[in-house]
Amino acid sequence: MASAGIVNIRRDVDDKFYRYRMPLLTTKIEGKGNGIKTVIPNMADVARALSRPPTYPTKFFGCELGAQTSFDEKNERYIVNGAHDANRLRELLDGFIDKFVLCKSCKNPETELIILKQGRTEDIIRDCKACGERTGVDMRHKLTTFILKNPPVKIKKGKKKTGTGDAAAGVGGGGDSPDAEASPVENGAESDDELTKKIKAEAKDLNDDTTLTKEEWSADTSPEAVKQRIKALEGGLAGVSIANGEDEGSDDDANSPYSQLGKWVEESKDSHEGDTKAFLVAAYKKAEELGIEKKHKSVLVFAQALFTDDVLNEIPQYGALFAKTITSEKHQKALLGGIERLVGLSHPDLLPAVPKILMALYQLDLLEEEVVTQWGTHVSKKYTDKETSKRVRKASEPFLKWLEEADDDSDDDEQ
Questions:
Q1: The pTM is what?
Q2: Domains contained in the chain, CATH given
């Protein structure tokens, strides 16, 4: 899906760098006459981003429109009877999100639904993992009857070194803290989907392709040449002071310094007239002006604003800026988070290229082996939804395997 098909979960937030994203709801009209119906092809993907079963928003549409609904969960087919405009259903989805997803207190979508029983009375509660508040839903809405009859699937928590299930509670794995690292990638997930099989097949000879050749990168963007430019850039930035302090503010706020930085980079990156070094220095000074040049979220913003579907050629171009701003494991993880969003949400066609992307970053010393290995074996909801996180990590397996084998060879040489 192209980036145009990704929108903010809260569509009232006009911020490209808003953390919570979902696919734009799509529709398809089928049938004629009394048999006409509206199929929602990507309802499963939308619901996954909301951490809700796809039956809930589909049934919500039916309640609001006075229409019959039907689901074929095995084939991910969700239908509302009648012909309904896509924009109308998107507006209704906003209503569902407001009533059954967003925390009533902080308006954050990082919630799970819980059913509380008190005697014969049952209430549906939104348990927010962001602010900790528990807020009730309007039990007068018709959807609540459906939810009570089809309650959220609760998955038992537990430490699993080789587990086969998600270590989460609530609807669709929505029980993780937004910043928490979830359980390691499960052995049970070894029943690889076709995409993973394709990636593995194409990358099984990765050991023979560990050097990014001049043909792939062109002579002036080889790792050696880029490292020389990094040193030159660092010399140009030597006099720039770096402020101390912890992360402040929210990257979800359209007026936050992170949003301002991202918008500035997007507007300026094509206007430097070929002088990439001058642009990178200016970008760093812009971050300094906003007081966030040392913060790991700035690395995430740079990755989102700079990288496109041509990321393999852009990494050596912009590597110097990341070399200057990445100063800790947290910064490296933010860079990986940017890559997750790039290939998982904006440009899924890049998934097979994940091993080469990681290799390029690794060769420029932007990522350390330990950080990549830990990232690759721990699914996280910090930067994307859990399913996207899993897909990106699956795609990274050939590179992780190469790292492990390279490390084994190094150990053998030392003996």
A1: 0.49
A2: 3-149 (3.30.30.170), 189-414 (1.25.40.180)
